[in-house]
C-alpha cells in the first residue's frame, strides 16, 4: 500500500500523485493541479472547516466515535477525579505534569497575579448597568493588552509565560467583577489565602463577612467543571484564538477573540437552552409528548447530540456525578428529575439510538450552574474561565510552530467584475 493519492484531472487528462501524511493531504499539493498555467490551482471549499486540519497539535485528543477525551494523553475522567484545575492548566500549557516544586511555583505565581490594576476596576464600573458579563469579560481581557504592552514580545519564552500566568490568574477576577457589576454589588478583591476556585467563589458571593468560606464540595464541583471545559481541540473559539494569534498580536487580544467566539449561542450558550427546555417541559408526565414532538422534527432535544461525539460525551458522565454532589449541598432541583427521566427515555428510544444522539456536556452543566445561583448570562463566563488554559496552550503551540502562517483562507469569488464606476454626481442626476 502506498501512502499517496492519485488524482486524474479530467480537464487536462493529467495525473498527479499527492502524498498522504497522517491521514491528510496538503492543500498546497492540490494547488499544483491547474487546468492551464494561467488559471489558479485547485483549492478546497470547506465552509466551517468541517474536513480541514488547520494545525498539528499535541494538546487534546478526541475520539468522538468512542467517546474519548484526553488532555496531553491523560483521560479526562482521571484528571477530573484526581487532579485540580491549576494542575490541568499546567499540563495543558507545558505538556507534562509538574513536579512538586514546579506545581508549587505555578500555584504561587497564579495566586499572586489575581489582582488587576485599579484602572481596570474603574473602566469596568463604566459599563451600563445591564451589560452582559461576556461583553464585559471580552472587553476587559482585550484591555489587559494596554496594561501589559510587553506582551507584544511573543518571541520571548519568559514573556509568554508571564502573560499566560497573568491571564489564568486574572480571568476569575474579571469574570466575578462582571457578575458583581450586573448585580450592583461592590467588587470583591481576590483573597490570596484561598485556592483558585474558592477565591473565585469569594469574589462572586462575599458580602460583609470577614472571610468567605465556601463549601468544599461546591469548590470541588466547580473545579471539576473548569477541568472539563479546559480544552476541546480546534473548536470555534480556539480557532478564533489561533486565527487572531497567527497575526502575532499579543495573547490578550487573541484570547479576547476567543471570548467573543464563545459568546455565540452555537458555541457557549447551549446549556442555557437546556434549562429553558426543562422548565418548559415542567413535569415528568409531559416528557412523552415532548419526545414525540422532537421525533416529529418540531424541535431538538437540547443538550443531546454533538458534531464530534457519536457516543456518550465523556464530560457529560462526569458532570452528572458532579450535579449529584452539588445538589447534596444546595438541595435538589426538580428539573434534575426531568433531565434524568428524559435521558433514560432518549437513550432507549430508537430515534436517538439510530442517530447516535447522547447527552453532551451541556445537558447537566446548566442545572449545576443554576444551583450555584448563577444567572444564565454567567454560564458562558464560567466556560471562558475554564477554557482559558486551553486557549493559551493552543496559542503557545501556534507561536512556536514553524509551519504556521498568518490565517488567510481562500474564497470563491461570486461577485461582479470590471464594472465602470460613475461618481455620485453622475449617478444621482
Ligand atoms: C450539536 C449539534 C449541533 C450537532 O449537529 P450535527 O453534527 O450537524 O448533527 P445533525 O444536525 O446532522 O444531526 C443528525 C441527525 O440527528 C438529529 N438530531 C441531532 N441533534 C438532535 C437533537 N438534539 N434532538 C433531536 N434530533 C437531533 C438531526 O435532526 C438529524 O436527523 P436526520 O438525520 O433525521 O435529519 C446537534 O446535535 C444539536 O443541535 N444538538 C442540540 C444543541 C446542543 O445541545 N448543542 C450543544 C453541543 S455541545
Question: Can you offer a commentary on this structure?
Answer:
This protein starts with a strand and ends with a helix. The chain is 53% helix and 5% strand. 39% of the residues are buried. β3 (60-63) and β4 (68-71) form a beta hairpin. The mean pLDDT is 95. It is globular and about 75 Å long. It has a single domain, classed as Citrate Synthase, domain 1 (Orthogonal Bundle). The chain has helices at residues 27-30, 76-82, 85-94, 100-111, 118-125, 133-147, 157-183, 196-205, 216-229, 236-245, 251-263, 270-281, 287-295, 314-330, 334-348, 350-354, 362-371, 376-400, 424-427; strands spanning 4-9, 14-19, 60-63, 68-71, 74-75. Strands 3-4-5 form a three-stranded antiparallel sheet. It is mainly alpha-helical and 429 residues long. The longest helix is centred in the middle third of the chain and has 27 residues, at 157-183. It is built from 19 helices and five strands. Bound molecules: coenzyme A (COA). The site of coenzyme A has 15 residues, from loops. InterPro entries: Citrate_synth-like_lrg_a-sub (IPR016142), Citrate_synth-like_sm_a-sub (IPR016143), Citrate_synthase (IPR002020), Citrate_synthase_AS (IPR019810), Citrate_synthase_bac-typ (IPR024176), Citrate_synthase_sf (IPR036969), Citrate_synthase_typ-I (IPR010953). This is Citrate synthase.
Tag the structure with descriptive keywords.
mainly alpha, Citrate Synthase, domain 1, three-stranded antiparallel β-sheet, 19 helices, binds coenzyme A
Give a topology summary.
Elements: E1 4-9, E2 14-19, H1 27-30, E3 60-63, E4 68-71, E5 74-75, H2 76-82, H3 85-94, H4 100-111, H5 118-125, H6 133-147, H7 157-183, H8 196-205, H9 216-229, H10 236-245, H11 251-263, H12 270-281, H13 287-295, H14 314-330, H15 334-348, H16 350-354, H17 362-371, H18 376-400, H19 424-427
Antiparallel strand pairs: 1-2, 3-4, 4-5
Helix pairs in contact: 2-9, 3-18, 4-7, 6-7, 6-11, 7-8, 7-18, 9-14, 9-18, 10-11, 10-18, 11-18, 12-17, 14-17
Bound molecules: coenzyme A (COA).
Coenzyme A (COA) is lined by residues 270, 294, 300-307, 355, 357, 360-362.
Amino acid at each position: 500500500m502506498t501512502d499517496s493519492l492519485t488524482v486524474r484531472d479530467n480537464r487536462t487528462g493529467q495525473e498527479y500523485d499527492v502524498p498522504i501524511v497522517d491521514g491528510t493531504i496538503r492543500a498546497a499539493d492540490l494547488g499544483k493541479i491547474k487546468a492551464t498555467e494561467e488559471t489558479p490551482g485547485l483549492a478546497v471549499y470547506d465552509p466551517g472547516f468541517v474536513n480541514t486540519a488547520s494545525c498539528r497539535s499535541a494538546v487534546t485528543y478526541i475520539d468522538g466515535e468512542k467517546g474519548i477525551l484526553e488532555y496531553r494523553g491523560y483521560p479526562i475522567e482521571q484528571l477530573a477525579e484526581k487532579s485540580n484545575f491549576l494542575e490541568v492548566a499546567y499540563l495543558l500549557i507545558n505538556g507534562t505534569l509538574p513536579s512538586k516544586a514546579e506545581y508549587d511555583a505555578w500555584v504561587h505565581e497564579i495566586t499572586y497575579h489575581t489582582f488587576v490594576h485599579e484602572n481596570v476596576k474603574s473602566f469596568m464600573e463604566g459599563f451600563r448597568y445591564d451589560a452582559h458579563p461576556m461583553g464585559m469579560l471580552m472587553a476587559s481581557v482585550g484591555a489587559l493588552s494596554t496594561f501589559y504592552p510587553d506582551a507584544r514580545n511573543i518571541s520571548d519564552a519568559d514573556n509568554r509565560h508571564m502573560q499566560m500566568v497573568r491571564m489564568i490568574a486574572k480571568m476569575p477576577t474579571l469574570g466575578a467583577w462582571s457578575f458583581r457589576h450586573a448585580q450592583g454589588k461592590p467588587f470583591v478583591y481576590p483573597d490570596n489565602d484561598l485556592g483558585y476556585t474558592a477565591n473565585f467563589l469569594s469574589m462572586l458571593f462575599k458580602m460583609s463577612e470577614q472571610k468567605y468560606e465556601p463549601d468544599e464540595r461546591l469548590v470541588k464541583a466547580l473545579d471539576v467543571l473548569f477541568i472539563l471545559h479546559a480544552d476541546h481541540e480546534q473548536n470555534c473559539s480556539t480557532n478564533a484564538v489561533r486565527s487572531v494569534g497567527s497575526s502575532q498580536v499579543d495573547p490578550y487580544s487573541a484570547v479576547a477573540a476567543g471570548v467573543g467566539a464563545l459568546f455565540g449561542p452555537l458555541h457557549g450558550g447551549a446549556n442555557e437552552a437546556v434549562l429553558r427546555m426543562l422548565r418548559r417541559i415542567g413535569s415528568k408526565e409531559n416528557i412523552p409528548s415532548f419526545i414525540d414532538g422532537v421525533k416529529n422534527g418540531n424541535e431538538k432535544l437540547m443538550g443531546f447530540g454533538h458534531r464530534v461525539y457519536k457516543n456518550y460525551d465523556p464530560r457529560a458522565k462526569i458532570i452528572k456525578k458532579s450535579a449529584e454532589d452539588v445538589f447534596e449541598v444546595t438541595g435538589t432541583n426538580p428539573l434534575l428529575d426531568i433531565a434524568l427521566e428524559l435521558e433514560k427515555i432518549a437513550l432507549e428510544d430508537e430515534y436517538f439510538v439510530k442517530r447516535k444522539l447522547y447527552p453532551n456536556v451541556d445537558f447537566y452543566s446548566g442545572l449545576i450552574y443554576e444551583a450555584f445561583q448563577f444567572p444564565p448570562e454567567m454560564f458562558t463566563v464560567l466556560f471562558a474561565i475554564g477554557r482559558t488554559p486551553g486557549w493559551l496552550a493552543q496559542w503557545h503551540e501556534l507561536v512556536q510552530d514553524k509551519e504556521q502562517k498568518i490565517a488567510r483562507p481562500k474564497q470563491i469569488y461570486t461577485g461582479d467584475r470590471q464594472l465602470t464606476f460613475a461618481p455620485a454626481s453622475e449617478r444621482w442626476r
